[in-house]
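Narrative summary of target 7.
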Amino acid sequence: MKIFSFCKKIRNSLIVKMRNFIFDIYDKAPLIGRPLVAFWNFLDDVKSEIEKRTLQLKARLMPGDDTLRKELEIFFKGIKDKDFKEGNAYQPYQPIINSGLKDLPFLKEGEVRFKIIKENFSAPKGTLLDIGANLGYFCHKFEDEGFDCYAVEANRMLCYFMEKLRRAEHKKFKVISQSIFDYKRNKDLVFDVVLALSVLHNFLQRKDTYFGLIKLLKRLKAQELFLETYFFDPSNPPKNYYKNYTPDEFVSFIIENSSFKKAEFIGKSEQGRPIYKLTP
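Modeled conformation, tokenized:
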């Protein structure tokens, strides 16, 4: 089992290095890199389509008529990702906004964060970018408040479910199935509001994503950035992180590398994670 886990880590590491190599070529020599990126995205599309078809087949073989519920249960039962784990079970990260699925368990409540952010908006409406949108909880909520929302999520299966939930609730927000690093690559990301809730600190884990985060921060052009950071115990910092910052240090790092110059602590999430509002 340990050998299998080790081999999986090596494989994933090689995939990351290959991907970074291809996109570096694209950044430096677009004419050469463009077909390589297109081929890489094609492989991602094929992998994603196989996953979807497999999931749909498994759901059809299960008893019951609620296809979306069955697909969600199958997907989260087999995801085996520590970010979705509660005890011995794997659950959706966010509450599911669908009247027929509200009984499904989830890991992180969203209502407290939604209210904190809503109470601290400067603009009553406009464009909103949700980085790492997961199942689209905040895009559902803020579309109801009049915002034109854009949900960026790198996990293609989560985007598959996000699209289904969006259609079921008759919402109009855009689902962008891409890494935030690749979204409008090398162009400014201009929005009225940006949400980065429990997501940006994940880019501190590796050297390549750390420098990718710096590039991303320089591209973000918004009137407001709402940032939820993470717990940090100085006596027990995260292991194997390329950079370790306290929440306040992380906010300072963002200010140093972006157009945001002011930061205000505005509250804590349900789990006690600090939330900040950053403005130019």
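Residues 172 and 215 are 29 Å apart (CA to CA).
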